[in-house]
Design brief:
heterodimer, A: alpha+beta, Ubiquitin-like (UB roll), Alpha-Beta Plaits, five-stranded mixed beta sheet, three-stranded antiparallel beta sheet, 24% helix, 16% strand, B: three-stranded antiparallel beta sheet
């Protein structure tokens, strides 16, 4: 007779013994136990894609770093969420993000409310050691209400997921590979010409100033991405 | 043997510039130029940006007078939107602009020029600065610091930030004024009045000692351009239309609105400076060149429109039968404008409507072109934008006060150099006077650089007997 499979896993995160349900991610369990792991692409209410790699963690017995948002807990795991090595990697990831496109905080619509900016401050980023790429990226202002500025996009895919998973429209997707990837609407039509439902969820979930409402600048553009779990809850209740 | 005297950098200015004086074989001044040696490229890199980002983008031109750029830019955007902003928003913007005028003039007079005026042109360069003034005349040093703080505090109260406030937006301002903030501003006024009175009294006492300088500090007839309140011909900083007068004070053209500006004002380019030279098109270049700024404004208006400043204005007008010509008097005009600023801020805040909460109009792109103008502390500022159907910038042009004063500064440097450099000989005090000519205009070089291209730079190495040993040019 084989032993009964239990639903409960026990593991150690940063020296603390914790228990979790099978199928939960390390990120979820860490947060339940008030252990903070930095993230950018992850957003409650959306699926996880492991795009930003900020939530990398160490697992004892493995030399490989794993993203906490998409790694399921296993019985007996020993997880380290903060170490010199991890901090170094996380800072480098941020530096790469800042160097990749044109992030000019002082004149950005999200200055002071940007998740990328706050993450830089949180992780003590003072300089970008890499040369800036300064790509020549266009702004699409064809939409009646919203604008996309690819210069500020970090390819977190929140807009793509919110549009597909919550709104069900799947207008946003990506085009190109690697460093040349950009988010597009429909089959790379202008946003104003696309099948956009104008719900604005993508704007609300965008962590930077890449997606924003027209005619809004700086101080008058707060975003509230925390409504997604409630939308999901209400739908499930119906 | 020819010789070049280079003053590089010119000190106590906002931005980077240099002066070169070319001597001929006899050691007499052949030519002299004031050069702006940087290029910034704001007009180019704003292309493709949404037009309503322009105020915050353009304000980054300068940390001293970002408010002027915010206002001229917001007005150009409002022309594109075709909206008229709410009355209270317009009044609040006026307060913001006056506050900036006070702080910037205080910076120019006390921090940059008062060392020359109060300690003397010949004073030891080691003490010829604001701290030297504070040590020698503590009450004036404190008045200067106080007036600058007054202006900056108002900007911070209104816009939450002292530099580059994001409060001015196309359509108005983002937040109304609270009664608490208004009362705080009003409570700061008595100290500011005392400070400016002290400075005016001190300046008028010493001005006579500078008769020789007044004679040669860009002292020549010219045209003058500035904003005017069309209702009563009083001084205007934020709204109104431009008036151009000639050397005798007669009106050449009145009612130049922002949209008509490019019809009448052209810009010439000289190979030795990144700053363009603005001129009145019907009179051509350089005949149509003119001066802007405090001296020009006081030369074009009939009255100040505030009682205390009016009294000082009447006294100022006694300096000459027609327009006051020597640029040395920019200092005096600047102090009168500070006093006017204080009075006008008090007057605007006395109106209970200033607390109205309707302070913003909204609209999309209704025109593909728009222009806005305002008076910066150093003179007329003009922003001109063109956008596409989506409201993205396709072209912009900024005409800056310093570009409009450029020809006068250049001629002023030559006039002073001819006077002070004799037989190829000069002292530090004389060179300081030539720099001081430029300081009277309070130019802002960082926002004035616009002409793109290779600027010839020549450095000459001259031996003691005047022989040119080496010459590097690019």
């Amino acid at each position: 007779m084989s032993p009964v499979e239990t639903d409960v896993k026990t593991l150690v995160i940063d020296g603390k013994e914790v228990s979790a349900h099978a199928g939960q991610t390390i990120l979820e369990v860490a947060r339940e136990n008030e252990i903070a792991i930095p993230t950018l692409c992850q957003l409650d209410g959306l699926s996880n894609v492991g795009a930003c790699r900020l939530c990398l963690i160490e697992i004892k017995g493995s030399n490989k770093l794993l993203p906490a948002c998409v790694t399921a807990v296993q019985e007996g795991m020993e997880v380290v969420t903060s170490s010199e090595r991890l901090l170094k990697h996380r800072r480098t990831i941020l530096e790469l993000l800042f160097a990749e496109r044109n992030h000019i905080c002082s004149v950005c619509v999200s200055n002071g409310r940007c998740e990328l900016q706050s993450m830089g401050q949180q992780l003590g980023l003072t300089h970008i050691r890499l040369p800036y790429r300064n790509p020549d990226l266009k702004v699409d202002a064809s939409h009646e209400r919203f604008t996309v500025d690819h210069n500020r996009c970090i390819l977190c895919m929140r807009c793509v997921r919110a549009c597909a998973e919550i709104e069900g429209a799947h207008v946003w997707d990506t085009m190109g590979r690697g460093i040349n990837t950009i988010v597009i609407t429909d089959l790379h039509e202008e946003w104003g010409e696309s099948s956009c439902t104008r719900c604005g969820k993508c704007v609300q979930v965008c962590p930077t100033g890449a997606l924003f409402e027209k005619n809004k600048i700086g101080a008058d553009h707060p975003k509230s991405p925390d409504f997604l779990p409630y939308l999901n809850m209400m739908r499930e209740a119906q | 043997m020819s010789q070049t005297i280079t003053i590089d950098p010119v000190t106590r200015l906002e931005g980077h510039g240099k002066i070169t004086i070319q001597l001929n074989g006899q050691g007499e001044v052949d030519s002299a130029h004031f050069h702006v040696t940087q290029v910034r490229g704001f007009e180019r890199f704003s292309e493709g940006r949404p037009f309503y980002e322009m105020p915050s983008l353009m304000a980054r031109v300068c940390g001293i007078c970002p408010v002027s750029h915010l206002l001229a830019s917001a007005k150009a955007c409002e022309a594109i939107m075709s909206v008229r902003i709410p009355h209270t928003a317009a009044q609040l913007r006026r307060v913001l602009n006056l506050a900036q005028m006070v702080q910037s003039h205080a910076l120019s007079f006390f921090y940059l020029s008062s060392p020359d005026l109060l300690l003397g042109m010949e004073a030891d360069p080691k003490v010829r600065h604001i701290l030297g003034v504070a040590a020698a005349k503590p009450e004036l040093g404190l008045a200067g610091v106080g007036l600058r703080r007054f202006g900056q505090s108002i900007i911070e109260l209104l816009g939450s930030k002292r530099i580059h406030p994001g409060w001015v937006v196309p359509g108005g301002v983002t937040e109304p004024l609270s009664a608490g903030k208004r009362d705080k501003i009003l409570s700061m006024l008595p100290e500011a009045y005392a400070g400016i009175q002290l400075a005016l009294d001190a300046y008028k006492k010493i001005a006579d000692n500078f008769r020789p300088e007044i004679e040669v500090f860009a002292n020549f007839p010219s045209n003058y351009l500035g904003l005017i309140n069309e209702e009563d011909e009083s001084i205007a900083f934020t709204d109104g239309a431009l008036r151009l007068v000639d050397a005798k004070g007669a009106i050449i053209e009145d009612g130049i609105t922002a949209s008509r500006f490019t019809e009448v004002i052209g810009e010439a380019v000289e190979p030795y400076s990144y700053t363009k030279f603005a001129y009145y098109k019907p009179l051509g270049y350089p005949g149509g060149c003119y001066r802007v700024g405090p001296l020009a404004r006081l030369n074009i208006v009939k009255r100040m429109g505030a009682p205390k400043a009016e009294k000082e204005f009447v006294e100022f007008k006694q300096l000459a039968a027609g327009p006051v010509e020597s640029s040395f008097h920019y200092h005096h005009a600047r102090l009168i404008e500070i006093l006017f600023g204080l009075e006008k801020i008090e007057e605007i805040l006395a109106d209970p409507k200033i607390l109205d909460t309707h302070v913003r109009a909204t609209a999309g792109v209704n025109r593909l072109e728009g222009a806005g103008q305002a008076e910066a502390p150093r003179g007329v500022l003009h922003h001109h934008y063109k956008v596409d159907d989506d409201g993205k910038m396709v072209w912009s042009n900024l005409v800056i006060a310093t570009g409009q004063n450029n020809h006068a500064m250049d001629s002023g440097v030559l006039q002073a150099a001819r006077h002070y450099v004799k037989d190829g000989k000069f002292t530090d005090g004389m060179l300081n006077r030539i720099e001081a000519v430029v300081r009277t205009f309070d130019p802002c070089l960082s926002c004035s650089t616009h002409a793109l291209g290779q600027m010839p730079l020549a450095v000459s190495l001259v031996s003691a007997d005047g022989e040119v040993l080496d010459r590097v040019a690019r």
